[in-house]
Each structure stands twice: as C-alpha cells, then as structure tokens.
Amino acid sequence: MVDAALTSAELEGGPAVSARRPAVGYALVLVAVSLWAVNGTVGKIIVDSGDISALRLAELRSTGAGLVLFVAVALVRPATLSVSRREVGFLAVFGIGGLAFVHFLYFVAITHLDIGIALVIQYIAPVLVALWARFFVHEPVRRRLWLALALALAGLSLVVELWSGTALDGVGVAASLAAACAYALYILMAERSLQRGRDVFSLLAWGFIFATAFWTIAQPWWSFPWSRLTAHASLLGRLDHVAAPVWLLVGYVVMLGTVVPFVLMITALHHIPATRATVVAMAEPVLGGLVAYAWLEESIGPFQIAGGILVLAGIVLAQTARSTPAR
Fold it and tell me: Residue 93 and residue 115: Cα distance in Å, rounded?
C-alpha cells in the first residue's frame, strides 16, 4: 500500500495499443505486489529480531532507495533532475511527509499489529484522497463515494473490533491510521507534481533524497549502530531456527522491497491502465497476510477477514468515484 507506484500522463498514454501486452502488465503488477507483501514480513523481522528500530529501518530504506534511484536517473535522464526554486519546498514536503513518515509509520504499525490488519487499515488512503477532492478541492465526485466511505468505516470497525473497546494494539492502530494519512498526502502531492509536468522517476528520486536528508538530521549517521548490520537475526515463525545477516535483510527491503517493485509497477503501466493496475495492487493486504501467516504464523480472525473485504470493496468504489481520476 504505502509502496504503490505513481504514474504520469506519458505512461498513461504509453506505446501504441497494438504494442501493449495486458498479460505482461498484470504479471508485472502481481510480481511487484508480491515483493511488497514479502517486504512487510522482512521489515518486521529486522525490527523484532535484528534489533534495528523502525526509525533506523525507515532511514536505511529511504537512503538506499534514494541513492539507487537518483544515480539511475542521473545516468539515464539527467535533464529531468533539474529543479526550480518553487519546487524545492514542495519536494521537501513530499519527501518528508509523503515518503519518510509513511515508511516509518508503516514499520511501527507492523511491529504492533499483524501485517494483514495493518495493511487493511492503511489502505483507506484512497478514500481519504477522494474525500479531500470533494470537500477541499471541490472536485465533482460520483455518489458512490458515500457508499465507499460507509463500507470503509464499517470494515475498519470490524477490523479493530470497535464494540469491544478496540481489541487491537492502540499504538499499532494509531500508526496505521497516521500512515494512511501520510500516504494520502503522498498521493495528492504526487498527482499535483505530475500534472505540472515532472516525471515519476525524478519525482521519486528527489523525494527519497529529501527523506534521506531529513533522517540524516533527525538521526545522524555517526550514531548508527553499524555492528547490528553484521549480526545475524532469526527469521522467526516457522523459520525461527534459521538466521540471516541483518545487512542481507536490509538489502531486500531497499532493492526487492522498494526499487524493483517501483520499476515493475511503472513498466506495467505501458501495458495496462493505471486504474486497473491500482485495483490489482489491492491484493497486497491479502498477500501480505498470507505471507505473514505462512512465515510468521500470524492469524487473522473472522471479523478481520470480513472487515478487510469491506474495506477493499470501499477502496475500489473510491478509486472510481472521482470524475477526473488521478493519473
């Protein structure tokens, strides 16, 4: 969820229709979503077993992804990295509020909640975006938005078992809701930037660079516990008897959990529309929950399953409620 890629008008247009291969596009989206689903479990292991805090893991992810993306864009499309004075503040807010915070809050959430539940709660972001478009931008929306909101709220009530005074960890629920707000900010600011003509690769590169700068100030690198990266961490759950070096797990989060899925998702948009890619990407909470069940032995109760279905249904409606959907 918090990893979903962005699109641009250029990508929406893509190649000629005859050159598109929808099957390839859907396959790329599913591979990207699968990598993100595994990423949640790997991140939880790093925090719980590798003794790397959620703050430090967010710092490592932003820095690693930022350096890889920035260097790649600088080598392939250097002209797109030019930034006007007007954009500096915008990109800083996008990188810090839309990337640094959403990753940090995500890691906090999954260390206090089962991964599938945390993802379901965070996936209400598209509903928040549609509400923002209706009440703050005064953008026309279809009536289905209200049904989407009702489904999302009903689903969330089931997920957190509201009638029992919230049976879930309060910190985890709060972090998930805050992550949903941060992700909504990410979507809205990215949409605005792309409409102004900035391409998605340079937007993400600068966003991660500003996130890296923020973490460097908040948590200077000279205070980083480097020895923990060379230590071995138990893989927990069904693989509790297996250990892996923490640096290898962090490498997965940076490359296979961030950079590669972004590239796969953006490549997929050459073959299928962004709206369809977004709907397919909603399989992440389901896959994330299945990975956590198979690996970490996390279980999800019937109320959480029913609530998750309602939330996902609400998201699908919210995605199609805007008269001028985000690219």
Answer: 27
- The number of C-alpha atoms within 13 Å of 170 and in the hemisphere containing its C-beta is 2
Residues 236-252: tens digit of each pLDDT = 999 999 999 999 999 99
pLDDT in tens, 42-55: 999 999 999 999 98
The structure's pTM equals 0.78
- Cα–Cα distance between 167 and 159 in angstroms, integer? 9
Q: What is the rounded distance in angstroms from the CA atom of residue 33 to the CA atom of residue 21? A: 19
101 vs 211: CA distance, rounded Å: 9
* Cβ atoms within 10 Å, residue 31: 15
Instruction: Read off the DSSP letter of residue 232.
Output: E
- Written as six digits, the tokens of 182 are 């941060």
Q: Report the 10 Å Cβ neighbour count for 88.
A: 12
Within 13 Å, how many C-alpha atoms sit on residue 273's CB side?
7
Beta bridge partners of 245: 232
164: DSSP letter: G
Residue 252: DSSP 8-state? I
Of 231, 206, 236, nearest to 51 (Cα)? 231
Give me the residue label for tokens 């100030």: 217
Which DSSP letter does residue 237 get? G
Nearest to 258 by CA among 267, 269, 250: 250
Strands (E), the chain: 232-234, 243-245
3-state secondary structure of 221: helix
Tell me, what amino acid is at 311? V
d(CA 102, CA 226): 24
Measure the CA–CA gap between 327 and 325, rounded to whole angstroms: 6
